[in-house]
Every structure is written in C-alpha cells, then in structure tokens.
Amino acid sequence: SSWIKIGNNEQDKKKKENALSIGYFQLFRFATWKDIVMMVVGSVCALVHGAASPLMLLVYGMMTNTFVDYEREVQELKDPNKTCNNNTIYWVNGTVYETDENTTLYCGVDIEAQMTLFAYYYVGIGFGVLIVSYFQIAFWVTAAAKQTQRIRKTYFRKVMRMEIGWFDCNSVGELNTRISDDINKINSAIADQVSIFIERISTFIFGFMVGFIGGWKLTLVVIAVSPLIGIGAGLMAMAVARLTGRELKAYAKAGAVADEVLSSIRTVAAFGGEEKEAERYDRNLVEAQNWGVKRGTIIGVFQGYLWCIIFLCYGLAFWYGSKLVIDTKEMTAGTLIQVFFGVLMAAMNLGQASPCLEAFASGRAAAKSIFETIDREPEIDCLSEEGHKLDKVKGDIEFHNITFYYPSRPDVKILDNLSMQIRAGETTAFVGPSGSGKSTTVQLIQRFYDPKEGTVTLDGHDIRTLNIQWLRSLIGIVEQEPVLFATTIAENIRFGRPGVTMEDIIQAAKEANAYNFIMELPQKFETMVGEGGGQMSGGQKQRIAIARALIRNPKILLLDMATSALDNESEAVVQEALDNVRTGRTTISIAHRLSTIRNADVIIGFEHGQAVERGTHSDLLGKQGVYFTLVTLQSQGQTNTTSEDFDLKAGGFSRGSRRSSKSSLRLRSWSQLSNDFVPDQRNDAEEHVEPAPVARILKYNQQEWPYMLLGSLGAAVNGSVNPVYAILFSQILGTFAIQDLNEQRKQINGICVLFCVVAVASFISQFLQGYSFAKSGELLTRRLRKVGFQAMLKQEIGWFDNPINSPGALTTRLATDASMVQGATGSQIGMIVNSVTSIGVSFIIAFYFSWKLTLVILCFLPLIGLSGVFQAKMLTGFANEDKKAMEEAGQVSSEALANIRTIAGLAKESSFVDSYEQKLESPYKSAKKKANIYGLCFGFAQCVIFMAYAASFRYGGFLVRAEGLQYMFVFRVISAVVISGTALGRASSFTPDYAKAKTAAAQFFKLLDRVPKISISQSDGEKWENFRGEIHFLNCKFTYPTRPDTQVLKGLRVSVKPGQTLAFVGSSGCGKSTSVQLLERFYDPDEGQVVIDGVPSHSVNVPFLRSQIGIVSQEPVLFDCSIAENIQYGDNTRSVSMEEIIEASKKAYLHDFVMTLPDKYETQVGAQGSQLSRGQKQRIAIARAIVRNPKILLLDEATSALDTESEKTVQTALDEARKGRTCIVIAHRLSTIQTADIIAVMSHGAVIEQGTHDKLMAKRGAYYKLVTTGAPIS
C-alpha cells in the first residue's frame, strides 16, 4: 500500500502542475447543441465503422471453412468408388463412408453459390463503410470548423479589448502565432482526428471480441505474447529519444563553434583563421556523428526485434491453433483465422490510435494560453458602455500625486508623485531628458494605463469614472512615428471619426498642410499608403496623421515629438500646420527642438518622473534649471556645428537614448512589424529552389558504397519477408484439408519452423539495414556540414550583412539542412529497395500460382494505391489551403495588434474586429465545403478494399470449381497482392521527407556553388616580396550592399606613406570605419580604387594582403579559449611559440596582468571574452595584432570604450606598437591623435580637410572647432 501512496503523491504533484492545463472536454466549450448533435452522430458512425473490419473477419472465417470443406470433398471424390448423395459421401455400393473417427462426411458444397453470397456480404459491408465513414468525417470536421471559427472570433475580440499594459507584456509576434498556429492546433484536436481515434479504438475492442468469441484459448495465448511487442516499441521510443538528445547535445558543441565563428566573421577573416576554424568545427562533429550511428543501430536492432517477435508469434499461434483444430477439434480452420487476425488487427489499431493522442495533447496545450486570454477580464475595457459622458468639456487636466510603473517593468518607477495642472485652451510644452516621464503622462491622459497612486482629472472628474470611448474621442494625438493603416489616404483620415463627409476630409487635409501634396499624387485621396504607410515620406505621413487627429475636432491635442523625425523642410511645414490648429484647444506638446517650444504658453520641465519647474520661456531661463541647461546646450550646438539643425543631442537628450530607455514601448510594435514581415517576403523568394538532383547528393556519399550495398542487401531481405509470409500463411490453410493426420502434423511443424527461420533472418536484415544506412548517412551529414561551413567562411563579408545570412540562420542551416539531406540517400534507398523487392516478389508469387486471379486483383490495385495517396494528400493538401485562406484574416489581425496604441487612441477597436470577422467568412465556408469532399474521399478509400475482396474471392471460387485451382492458392495470391499494395502505400508515405531532403540539398548546393565576390583562395591575385605599406584611397565611392540607398563614401581621397600615421576624425556615420573595411578587402569600392604599394587592391591576393594587416577594433572579439590561444590567433599560418606570446604581451602591457591570474596564459576568457574587463580584452587584442607582425596597423577607436586609467595603459601600448609601421587610426578623443602625421577630417563620406595638427589648428576650419569645443565626435 505504501507503494500506492507514493504513486498517489506523484499524481498529486502532477495534478497541481496540470491544474492549469485544460481538460480535453473543455476544448469543446464553444460547441452549440447543433455541433454536439453532429459530434455525437459522427462518433456513432465512427464506432460502426470501427466494427466493420472485425465483421469482415467473420465472413472471412466462414469462407475459409467453405473452402476447406470443398477441398476435402474434392479429395475424397477422387476415389472412383465414392459418390455424393443427399449431401453425404457414400461408397458406390451404397453404404455410408465413415472416416477413422466414425463420422460421416458432408459433400455437395456449391462453391460458387456460397462465394456469391460472401461477395454480397462484402459489398454490403463496403457500402455501409462508405456511408458511415463519410458521415463520421464530414460531421466532425464541420463541427470543428464551426467551433474554431467561434474561438477565433472570441479570442480576437477579447485581445482587442485588452488594456495597453497587457500588450506590453505579450509580444505582438507571439499573439499572431497564437491566432494562427495555436488555434489550428486546437482545431486538429477536435476535428477528424477524434473520429479516427474512436474508429481505431472500436476496431481494437471488436477485434478482441471476435477473437474471444471464436476461441478464447488461442486469443489468450496471442495476448500473452503481445506485451513483448509493446515493450519493444516502448523501449525503442525511449532509446531513440535519449540518443537523439545526446546527438543534439553533441552537435550543440559544434553548433556553438559555428555560431561563434560566424558572429565574429570579420575577426576570423582579418586574421585569416578560416581553415583553423573549419578544422575546429569538424573535430566537434565527430562526436555527433558517433551518436547518430548509435541511434541508427539501435533503431535497427529494435525494428529487427519487433519483426522477429511478430513472426515468432505467428509461428506459435498457428502451431497452437492447429493443435486446437486437429487434436481437440475446438475450432474450425475458419475460426482459427478469425481469432488470429482479430487479435492482430486489434493490436495494430491500438498502435495506430496513439498518434491521435499527440494531436489531442498539443491541442490542450495550445488551448491553455488561448482560453486564459479569453477568460481574462481587461483592467481597462475600451469597449465597455460604462462611465459618464460629460455634456460640456472645457479641457482642464490635472495630475494629483501620481506614481506610475509600466506593467512590463514593475521595478522602474517612471512617475514619482507627479502633480501638475494643464489649463484649458493653453499650449503646454513638456521638456526634459529622456525617460523623465513626458510621454508617459500623455498615455495616462489617454487612459492607456491607470496610475498606481493618485488621479488624473478632466474638468475635475477622475477620468476613471468617464466612458473610455467617449474620453478618447475628445483627444487627438500626433505621435513621433505616426502609424498609418494599409489602405487609402482618405480611409486613413476617416479613421479619425466615423461618418465624416469628403468635404470634412479635404478641410482637415488643408488644415494639416497635406492637401497640396495629396492632390499632386496620381490617385489623390485614393492613393494607397502601403503597409505601415511605407509608400509615404516621413513628412507626408506626419501630415496625414495630423489630418486624422484634426478631423476628430478634438478638445485636447497631444503632440508627442510630432516633428522630431523630420528633416528641416518638412518640419517647417508640419510645424506651421500644428501652430494653426492649436488655437482654442488644450494642447500638450512634447519636443526636443527649441524652435517648437518657444511659443508655448506654459513650459513644464520634467526630471526623474516629477514636474520640477513650470513657467514661460523667459521665466525658466531665469531659474537656471532643467530648461536652462537644455537651451544652453542647444544654442552652443548651433554656434559650433556646421549643421544648421541640431537636436538636443548632448546631455542625454538624443532621440536614440530615449528609444532605448523606454524599451521603446511605442516603437516596439514597429520593430516587430519590420522583423516579422521582411524576412517572410525574402524567404518566399528563397524557397523556390529547384530540388537538387539525387545523383549529386549521392556523389557526396560515394566513399560509403560498401555500407550502402550492405544496407540495400538488408533492405532486399526485409522486402521479401512479407510475400514469404503470404506463402507460409496460405500453406497452413492448405494443411487443414489433408486427410492423413500424421502428414498434416508434420507439415504444420515444418511451417512453424520456417516461421522461426524467417524471424531470425528478419532480425539480422533489419539490423544490417539500420546500421549501414545510419553509418553512411551520418558520414554524409558530417561531410556536408564541414563542406557547408567552409563554403560559408569563403563568402565575402557583404554576404553576411544580408539578414537571410545572419549567424543564427546559418547555424540552423548547418544543423537541420545537412541532417535532412540524409533523408535523400541512405534511408531513402533502403525504403525504395525494400518496396521494390516486396512488390516484385509478391507479383512473381502471384503470377506463378494463378495469373488469371492476379490480373483480376490488379484491376483494384490502382484504386487501393490511389486511396492511400488520397489520404496522405488530403491531410497535407488541406493544411496548405487553409493556410492560404487564413492569410488575409492574418494580415488584418497582425496589423491591428502591431498598431494597437494607434487603434486605441482612435477608439477604432470594434471596426477592426468587424473587418477580421468578415475576412474569416471565406475560409470558414471553404472549410465546410472541404469537410464534405474529405468525407467522400475518406469513405471511398475505406471501402475500396472490401470491394476488391468481394470481386477477387468470387472469381477465386469460380476458378476453384472450373479449373480445379487449389483454394490455398487463392488465398496465397490475394494476400500476396494486397501485401504488396500496402508496401506501395508505405513507400509513397515516405516521399514528403524525400522532397524536403531534396530542397534542403538544393539550398545547400546553392551555397556551395555560390562564387564569392571576393575570393580568399591562396592562388588568386598578386603577392610581392618587400611589402612597404603605402596606401592611397583614390576617389572611392561605396554603398553597403544591404543599404543600397545610402552612399557611405562619396569620393574619398587620402594617402599614407610607409611608416606614417594617418588619423581619421569625423562624426559617426561619415565612413571612417568603412574605409578601414575597404583596406581589409571585406568590401570592394563601387567606384575608384584602393591602391597598396602601387597595386590596386582588387587584384591583390586576399590572404597575403590580410596577413600584412593587424587590426585592433573598438569591441575586440575574443574566442572562447585560453588567453594564449587568443594571442596565437594573430598568426594562423604557423604555430606561435610561447616566447613570442610573452614578448607580444609585454609590448601590449598585458604580461604583468596575466601573471597575476591563477592559470596565467591558460586562463579561459569565456564566451566573447566575458571573463575579462574591457581594458584587458583590448590589450589581448593588441598583443594578437603584434604577434602578426603586420606592416599596416589599423586602430578602429581602439580606446574609446575604456575608462581613463586603462586608456592610458592601452594608449602607451598602442604608441609602442605603431613604431615603424604604417598606421591608420580612427579616433574618438582628439588628444590621442595630435601626434599623427596626417589628420583627415571626414564628413559625409569625403575628406573635407587634412594636414598635421598644427596646420589644421592654424587653418581654423572644422578641426579647429572640434578641438576648441571639446565636443565628443561620435
């Protein structure tokens, strides 16, 4: 009992965990009574359908008995002294013939009449099956479609009602997946799978019933053996799962190497480490390969074990069964067959029912998150009718002691006891550094969130008591990045207020300064703005958004950074529009540009979530507080910079910091939109790759031909096992008609021994097939992975910039594509050989014993085959069509979720819900139509086999009578052909893997065949002896391949003599680092050239060039190995000795620090060097560059990320390293470059002035300004 208790405890724990999960029947909570009736009827039909196969066995049993009786009669009547009279056999002299056991013998079997009767039975069962299986499928699928439709609608409506805080905590991408995938999972858990499950379980039950009715002893014997099969299957599943886990783990190591290398590809390329990395990757692949082989072997062993047990089981059953038939006469031959097949069928169906359980489980899991959302009550319900609507609104807003946290980040206090007043009709400007809570106050006014403490009041009423839809209808908002919907301009403006006329729209457009540009467009107001307004420029989008806000005729206008994202020209236009419409409205404006704030009535300064000062422009300047700093920073910027437009960049006022600091709550949806949509479109283009020719895949697998041969041999033996089984099975039936009992026993024992032989042979061949193909397949996978990885490392750097080739995507490709290709070689060949031998041997047997009967059955084979294909096709085909149909609705939902704030601000939730529901109609209709087609096909597929039996046995009976064919041959031919038919079906079911493998291979070969734009082979290009390091940039123009619209270098001209130091200075994005990348030949310039020692760079040998260059970059990339190995990475052409390492690290001021570490040079630096400080990493990078002993040293902002102390050390180390080398420095602090021989000041991709420090200071140009203001440059 204690054991039971423990079990209960475990169950209790499980119960607690699963208390959250959904019970299976809860999935049907959206069913109406009609659906329930349909499902009940469908289930009854499924039960009946399940009983059909066992019923057929009864007929089969009776038929066997008829055949046996007839055969006996024929054998007895061969004796000329016997005749048949009154259905009993008499001697010719008239006495009754008695057998040894003193029984009389029955005769006069009219075999054809009997067979005709059985044929009718079969046809009847067939028609019954056709009808019930149609209803079973059609009803369940229709009911499921209705329920899914209801779940979709309910879910979307509920999501649209959620408060904004909830969206902060749930990513839009995730919600989109839930709407599509999770609901599809629920659908598959409540649709046809259920009926098929019921049908299989019913076959299981009825099969055993038929068995027990026929002969309980034999049934029990067979059942006693079946656990062996079950245990085998269970162990196999467990072992495979564990080994797969091991294999993945082993591969994960190699994957980590690949990921590390691909993410730091620039460093690998700069130091020429490609070969070394490929070797390192390959070393890690060995382990994964070994586990893979083990897995294949174990699958082979278990499969062999299963078949072996099954055949031994056959042998036992027939041996024991024949004892019962012959010795004790408890059973007839027919009941023996009926029992044996009944139990077999039951076991098979139980096995086939298990995949359905998986669908149910995943449906329940998916339902959990969906139903949780459906049951959640929103904290701020935007569609509710509750709350007051005031008759008259002045527009006074007050904040009383408000404290607020974002629900997604409850630990950061955004507003801290904030109190302020905003008077009606005035323009109030909010200023302050990023993250001080300005935008948050705007969102509280819209009641996107409720404050933790305190109240927001409108005209003295707490806004929580007001009706939300009404409150939001008073407010017009223009955001920094306005969201437009993918429809026409007019529609976008109309979103502002329902039921406006075209005149109103035009009026609003005029007020927003948008009318003129709209009228210039070809389709005027009917112009489509594109996904997210992508067809419009920033200024145009802004003005459409302003028009949309104005058409509401709002009492309160919120301008959140409305002009910050614009260039000067459009800003002036938009600003003018805003100034016109502010009059007479309560306006709140958040801005960073002074020009936009100066003329506000009241300015409120924010800091750390509090309103610290308030007053007019001149008041606040006198106070010398937040506003004052802001103004001085800006005006200083204006005198000192050449650019006329200067955001409040300094002092943390830059847009960028604000974006990051708020985890960009407003922009979050955007970045997700772009992330979600861009790759999809690209992938579609990628997907249509011609499948690779199999010959080419096999070529890669050439070396493993002995394994392939062995495997194919095994497969051939496996294929011929089934037909052999048909021979043995019919032979046993034949023995029952033998008169001589001893002869009969001898034959039966012989056959059972043969069964055992077949069992052993099957075990060996299965093992052979499993092991050989696993070995050849894993070797192929490893080879492909290595080759693929090398191909990746050969590509030019520009290729890696493409998001399709991000490190993540590439590592996945190595992991999955390579292992998929395996599916096209070994196992596939095995499958083909197996099926071909199976079919071949079956037909040989069939034609040999009776060609006429074989031809009759052959007529049905295409139908049986078709029905198999049908079923496979149905399932996949429907899935794809459904996806297509759901896409439109998916677009609506993803647009709505991505722009939820805008929709909430416009109070347009319900119109999106309506549009979504309308888009769901067509998929729903087609789903209902498909239910019927699917039902018909399913029914047809199910009943074909019954019809085939009817025809072939009827004809068989005729042949037995007319041509004296032995009845056991009838059974032999029929079972051989049917078995080969199922083998065919099995072969076709393997094709999807095969197709996948071919496309995966094609993707792979595309990668292998791609010719890199910049070849890194040792042979291409020039090399020369004494490399001096003289560099000229001649009129270089360059754009990054991934951003073709922005030119980074616009005619760069600058040159360095050997041994000189050239320093680049300039603001960020002016092309300083780009020039360095051109020198390394990561990219080649579009026009112009880089000349090195008088040779144009594009004709120089790349490994040779890179071996002359050492680079120390701003964020040095270290590899996950020891310090010594990282320094050795500097020169991958030879192995660097320890002395050299120490020498280099002394030069880099690193040695002393390393000696303080416990493991000294063997210290592991961690992934990306995470165990070290930045200064330490920098110095390792310098040592690495020194070991290379380069002629050219590139320092890309090498000290910018350091604190002062480490900077001094690193700077000294760098000055040491520069001696006697050509050096290019990209500087961040001007103090570090004053000693340079040439200083080149860059702006917008060209050099605007160059010379020594003193010359440039005397010139009093851009450089002079930079030095005197001490402004940080980048």
TrEMBL record:
The entry's keywords: ATP-binding, Cell membrane, Glycoprotein, Membrane, Nucleotide-binding, Repeat, Translocase, Transmembrane, Transmembrane helix, Transport
Subcellular localization(s) per the UniProt record: Cell membrane
GO cellular component: mitochondrial inner membrane; plasma membrane
KW Transmembrane helix (keyword) present: yes
A Pfam family hit: ABC_membrane
UniProt main location, coarse: membrane
Signal sequence region: none
A GO BP entry: oligopeptide export from mitochondrion
Domain spans labelled ABC transmembrane type-1: 40-362, 709-996
Gene3D superfamilies for this protein: ABC transporter type 1, transmembrane domain (1.20.1560.10), P-loop containing nucleotide triphosphate hydrolases (3.40.50.300)
Superkingdom of origin: Eukaryota
InterPro entries listed in its UniProt record: AAA+_ATPase, ABC1_TM_dom, ABC1_TM_sf, ABC_transporter-like_ATP-bd, ABC_transporter-like_CS, P-loop_NTPase, Type_1_exporter
Membrane topology: Multi-pass membrane protein
Gene Ontology MF term list: ABC-type oligopeptide transporter activity; ATP binding; ATP hydrolysis activity
Family statement drawn from the similarity comment of this UniProt entry: Belongs to the ABC transporter superfamily. ABCB family. Multidrug resistance exporter (TC 3.A.1.201) subfamily.
Protein name: ATP-binding cassette, sub-family B (MDR/TAP), member 11a
Organism of provenance: Oreochromis niloticus
